[in-house]
Design a protein that fits this description.
Number of strands: 30
Distance between the termini: 88 Å
CATH class of the largest domain: Mainly Beta
Strand order of the largest sheet: 24-25-26-27-9-30-29-28
CATH architecture of the largest domain: 7 Propeller
Number of domains: 2
Length: 351
């Protein structure tokens, strides 16, 4: 009986001591949605009026300047998209607590809308499930997908003749590709790795693993970095030498994020991205993105090209617009689609 009394006394003591401790309920106070170029003013508060001794603030894991539990952010320093704000709060007798929060930054401009005027067209293999397209030194390079059918090819643009080709192992679903420093960099979809080939011989030299971007979709480069999409609204920048992910941007317009970004191409300093849309009605869209901050500056409606293909071909829902190539010497812009029988040279027309 004495043992039971001791246990009850101990429990009662713990409860009483706990009830005497000061309660803390810290929150980070900021707007949840702002526009680019807005200033974000934030602070740490306790919902029941208690105080803290010290607080450190972090944005996307990096500490930011603060004073007396407040901070100010310039949205131009972070670009558009969701920004993770956290605080390490020190309070009481040697206690600390981490608080997490987020702010979503929207574009402060409406994207310009374009259509495409057909300037010329060239033959394209209707069996090619196009995943990547690039124009380099007078030739077209293309990567295709589907397991057992994935290839990388060098093609004569005018005739459609395949001049050189390598086939991926049947276990891989090929995705986007790009050429940099006499190497072909090519992605796979869900195998979480890509391959590097010699541009001249097409011999595979090495492979590389993905990081936080779990899937491979589109690939291009800016002359020094590889730029990769993963099917979301994020676009990743990789060190070309190590293929390690360095950072990412988020594609946002004034209404929110744009996801399902697929094949990529750099065009006069802007990032062009096909958007993968297979739901009816099928839409053929290219998104123009500022690579510095993620702002969607333009939308290219190329539905007329799909309608042109349907005049001479029967294609399925998965035969969507996918494939952008740019001739930097002549400013020619080429586009095609999965299993399309034509490659179009187009001129953008502002609406």
């Amino acid at each position: 009986m004495k043992i039971i009394h001791k246990i009850l006394f101990t429990l009662l003591t713990v409860i009483l001591l706990s009830s005497c401790e000061t309660a803390y309920r810290f929150v980070i106070d900021t707007p949840t949605k702002v526009n680019l170029e807005d200033e974000i003013n934030g602070s740490i508060n306790d919902e029941i009026g208690q105080t803290f001794k010290k607080v450190l603030f972090f944005v996307n894991g990096k500490e930011v300047a603060s004073k007396n539990g407040t901070f100010t952010l310039d949205t131009n320093d972070h670009g558009v998209g969701k920004q993770i704000i956290s605080a390490m709060v020190y309070f009481g007798e040697g206690k600390s607590k981490r608080i997490n929060h987020s702010v979503e930054i929207f574009s402060n401009i409406e994207p310009t809308v374009y259509t495409g005027k057909i300037i010329n067209f060239y033959p394209h293999d209707p069996k090619a499930f196009t995943q990547g397209l690039e124009y380099h030194n007078g030739f077209l390079y293309e990567s295709t997908g589907k397991k057992g059918q994935s290839t990388i090819s060098k093609i004569n643009l005018k005739t459609g003749e395949v001049l050189k080709r390598v086939q991926l192992e049947h276990t891989y679903f090929g995705e986007g590709m790009t050429i940099l420093n006499d190497k072909i960099y090519a992605l796979t979809w869900q195998a979480k790795k890509g391959f590097i080939y010699d541009l001249e011989t097409f011999n595979q030299e090495k492979e590389f693993a993905y990081g936080r971007s779990k899937e491979g979709w589109g690939l291009t480069n800016n002359g020094s970095e590889l730029i990769k999409s993963d099917g979301s609204h994020k676009i990743w920048f990789l060190d070309a030498k190590t293929q390690k992910e360095k950072r990412f941007i988020q594609a946002y317009y004034d209404k929110g994020k744009i996801d399902k970004l697929n094949e990529l191409e750099m065009v006069n300093g802007k990032l062009y991205a096909n958007r993968w849309i297979t739901e009816k009605p099928i839409r053929s869209l290219i998104v123009i993105i500022n690579p510095n901050n993620g702002v969607v500056e333009g939308l290219i409606n190329l539905q007329s090209l799909r309608e042109e293909i349907l005049k001479s071909q029967k294609i399925g829902n998965d035969a969507v617009l996918n494939g952008i190539a740019f001739d930097t010497d002549t400013n020619r812009l080429f586009v095609t689609g999965k299993n399309w029988g034509k490659i179009f040279e187009i001129e953008l027309i502002k609406q």
